[in-house]
Amino acid sequence: MTAPRPLSSKAEALMERLGIKYEDLLGFRFAVNVFIATTIVWITLKLMDAGSPIWAIASMIAASDPEPGEARRMFRSRIINVLVGCAVGLCFLILGNGSDWLLPFALATTVLISSYVIRIKTMWRQAPITAAIVIAAGISHASKMAGIESGTRKVMQVLFGCAVGLLVSWLMSKVWLVKPKPPGEPHDQ
């Protein structure tokens, strides 16, 4: 058995004293996770002069979860689908001609690969979303090389955002683990 964590014990005591439901405290902890992770992503990418951090932040939020068990369960499916979206997006940027039809064909291809080859239904929407981020960044440039460079930069930002979201979720579970009441104990109304 692990020793109780001071912050966790205080949060659970506050939850009991104020009659706060587990879900409410979990929502507050998720807000704290997102605040910390957003700050890390924003400052890091600004210091690196990596452009707008919005896609990294969106990816960070998608990869964050206040419940460590849920975060672990979702990690594999999230990261695999992000990698599929990045790979397909970059392939279409490299092989494509930059036409207006590149995006719909690339997204449909991403969905088919995610659905029928990878077959990880959990977070399967992450693959075409990521491909869209990469391709949109790439096709908005005048030259193919500039588009590929921009798409690759977006891939790195998306992966960085996912990594920060997962890391902060994990660290917060070590510092401030919010646990539901055991089954059989009365829950506050």
Number of domains: 1
Succession of helices and strands: HHHHHHH
Radius of gyration: 20 Å
Question: Class by helix and strand content?
Answer: mainly alpha
Q: What percentage of residues falls in helices of 4 or more residues?
A: over 70%
Span from first to last CA? 29 Å
Strand tally is 0
Strand percent estimate: under 5%
Biggest pleated sheet:
none
Mean pLDDT: 82
Low-confidence stretches: none
Count of DSSP H/I helices: 7
Given the C-alpha coordinates, what overall shape results? Answer: elongated
Description:
The chain has 189 residues and is mostly helical. It has one domain (6-175). The chain has seven helices and no strands. It has helices at 6-18, 22-47, 54-63, 68-95, 102-118, 126-139, 144-175. The radius of gyration is 20 Å and the shape is elongated. The model has no long low-confidence stretch (mean pLDDT 82).
Nutshell version of this structure?
The chain is mainly alpha-helical and 189 residues long.
Write the layout of secondary structure elements.
Blueprint: H1 6-18, H2 22-47, H3 54-63, H4 68-95, H5 102-118, H6 126-139, H7 144-175
List keywords for this structure.
mainly alpha, 74% helix, 189 residues, 0% strand
